[in-house]
């Protein structure tokens, strides 16, 4: 829980962990409004009421979660949320609303809802309400006293789950029965005080995951075997196994103590020999031998106890395997309830028949549609042969080769004008025998020789 010493270490008006809302330091007007008291009724101004409640209710629970506590008091909250010398005036109303919604519960009411007869300490403080609290409830006054202890219901469930996992992952889980003192030592890191530890056990007991029994003045706790299983009452077998476990621990402690005593006798004999005290050395050696004989006898007893425990653990494992087999057989029978060989064969025949039908339908559809025309395949083959024979007699209609142009001098003939052609013709005529060129001779265009 919070304490004045812890709060004194923190800076005044601030949050040492930096987990308070930003407006805590930045918005003075907003914080003045939040630190003011609630109206007498929500109907007066529901907006202001809901704004304050929406700020303080989650903050109270988150603060408790960060502190790792499940028990809280109004006085502690006022000290924790003190700001610049002021305390929130509406925290009592916030706690009343959380109580109404079931997110908080009075510690005494929680204790009364569970069988806590095994708790024998602090009856007047832990179990019974102070007289003024009882009278205030009878008179209809729902105000929360500053010293009344409240329990955060959801945080207590989370703490109970944490303790259960801690036990399951520890060597103590080898047997479902464990001493309350050993369990308390195991949970010292999770439960900050004894009351929190007892509240966690009561929550686990409420969830039917543990049961507590007092045996010969010593309290023992029995856990459920699985996370979703319900714990069974402590029986004679559980008590017998617990006693064997206690005997094993006692024998182990005695063996360790006698081993140290034997080593001490050996050292005394060695020192007596060095000092020349032979008789003293002999007495020390005799004491060492007697101690070693006792150790051997204790070892034999310890081996016997450990052998019995090993057999018990093995039988428990066998029982778990047997139960698993039995559950498996029951599930298999249930799943095969309406399944027989005849039904399976009939089902296979039906599947085969359907597959054959599907194949026939597929073949029928693959034949195509003839539109009412029935063609003779032999006549179609003959007509195709005639067409092939006719095509072999006809010349092939191949494309013509591209024309090739040949020149007398193997040189491409450039385009020549008419005047140049006439001049060339006159030259040829003169060279062939005195032909006289005539201006009236018709003009013709020479074509290149192919």
TrEMBL record:
Keywords: Coiled coil, Cytoplasm, Nucleus, Protein transport, Transport. Residues 10-22 have a biased composition (Low complexity). Residues 156-224 form the CHMP7 winged helix domain. It holds the Pfam family Snf7. Residues 248-275 form a coiled coil. ESCRT-III-like protein required to recruit the ESCRT-III complex to the nuclear envelope (NE) during late anaphase. Together with SPAST, the ESCRT-III complex promotes NE sealing and mitotic spindle disassembly during late anaphase. Recruited to the reforming NE during anaphase by LEMD2. Plays a role in the endosomal sorting pathway. Interacts with CHMP4B, but not with VPS25. Interacts with LEMD2 (via C-terminus). Belongs to the SNF7 family. This is Charged multivesicular body protein 7. It comes from Ursus maritimus.
